[in-house]
Write a structure and sequence with these properties.
Layout (H helix, E strand, L loop, with lengths): L1 E5 L2 E5 L4 E3 L1 H8 L9 H22 L11 H13 L2 E11 L4 E10 L5 E7 L6 H11 L8 E7 L5 E6 L3 H18 L1
Parallel strand pairs: 6-7
Antiparallel strand pairs: 1-2, 2-3, 4-5, 5-6, 7-8
Length: 188
Amino acid sequence: MIEEVRNGLRGYTDGNTWYPAVGTILDVLHPAPMEWIAEDDLAEGAACHKEMEQCLTILRNGGNPYDGCTIVRVRKFLDWFTRQGFTIVSIEKPEANALHGFVGRSDIVVLDNQLKGLVLEAKYAESLQERYEVQAEAYTRLDAHKGFKSALVQITRAGIVKAKPLKPSARHWAAFLSALGVHKWRMK
């Protein structure tokens, strides 16, 4: 899957079909104009995610994830992550849901100590929005993640890491499917 923007909307293509990204679909349900987030905060969040992805890739390959890790918030996340004993399955990998026609790119998919699947969404933010819970619900419904549990991991500016395990939610799934339907209707 290759990321591609069409008509100003982010999505993915497999060369034949274009699929909307989960975040694009959620904009229908929970419009989140970027103007309310300061540019510096957006840039910092993007930098944290990029460095987190690099550090986790090093960890997955057997190296020291702290080598080259310069952002304090990412180091705090790594401290928490390594204490959990997770086995990394994938990092920022776009995956399609064939049944419903969308693509999600979950931050991290892991196996926990009991070898049960878990989808982790890292949020470098001071507060969490319900939009993130809907996003995580969509990711756990992806074909590759069926039956996985999900959790939001909040990393604050102070470096406090809080994990919020999520339960499967029919309400969040229904909200996501409604947004997907509206999105498909708008695209026609």
